[in-house]
Amino acid sequence: MRKILHIDMDAFYASVEQRDDPSLRGRPVVVAWRGGRSVVVAASYEARPYGVHSAMPAARAERLCPDAIFVPPDFPRYKAISRQVREIFHEYTDLVQPLSLDEAYLDVTEPKIPSPSATATAQAIRAAIRERTGLTASAGAAPNKFLAKIASDWNKPDGLFVVSPARVQAFLTPLPVSRVPGVGKVMQGRLEGLGVRTVGDLRALELAELRAHFGTFGERLYERARGIDERPVQPHQPVQSISSEDTFETDLLLDELDEAIRRLAGKTWAATRKTDRVGRTVVLKLKTDRFRILTRSHTPEVLPASAAELAEIALALRARVDLPDDTRYRLAGVGLSGFRDRAEVPDQPLLFEQA
Hints:
Elements: E1 4-9, H1 12-20, E2 29-31, E3 42-43, H2 58-64, E4 69-71, H3 75-92, E5 96-100, E6 103-107, H4 118-133, E7 137-142, H5 145-152, E8 160-162, H6 168-172, H7 185-193, H8 199-203, H9 207-214, H10 216-225, E9 241-253, H11 258-272, E10 277-278, E11 281-288, E12 293-298, H12 307-316, E13 328-337, E14 340-341
Parallel strand pairs: 2-4, 7-8
Antiparallel strand pairs: 1-6, 1-7, 2-3, 5-6, 9-13, 10-14, 11-12, 11-13
Helix pairs in contact: 3-4, 9-10, 11-12
């Protein structure tokens, strides 16, 4: 049986700012650029009781918490600290799967440093993070990734929660079904229509019924309701997608997006040059002024061989947007997905030329 940790830095970006500027400690800090189009990158625990959270418009955060102190994000600094934290992880195990700058899964079934239990390993890692970075982290320990991730959020901030194999069913039964990954508001509503509000309710449904209602996702729901998750911790995850997006200063019409799409295609293309894998599908993402998100994608027979070709495909995807002509857009993004190893892609002489 595996011993899995999920370690999550507490309010990471905001905590870094509070650590480095003592005047911010104990005060509501919002990490975001100022401006009507900006979104919140992170919020300190002092700001969260006001309803401020990441990804909300910065202007709304300011209305909710007029005393908030806005600090522009400093990603190079956050990345440097994230590398320091990952170095600590690797002192205990080589099986580390980063999810972002501030969280990761660790398989400590056989730790590099002798330890009596996963709990003791988690405590040692958290202590090392505090000692070397001055920051706190919360951790969940469990037999699999699904349970460990839920557990890490249980005693935040600066907490540890353990779900032992013997406690799995008792732990899951009363949980709201929304705690299951992939169950958003729409899926939650569909489950409630079946009388399912808790994981215990979900466990009462047969596999055939879940398949009938939700297809292959029904199989995942069946497994998660029973605490089953066989996914291993994968230290070296291949690139699956690369994208760039931007929120505009003012909302634009669809035919006014040419310059932005070309610029974003250039950024995405430059990012793909840093990987040995090749993206096959071009994706155009748009967000309207009413926050409706649309994506359009195309997998060409001949893959784009330059930033300019990527931009032309993304521009052509606009023709598949069927909203009224007067619709305005606040955000656009250009991405490549469906990445494969280069050896798996048919030979195309121009494919790997630099733009």
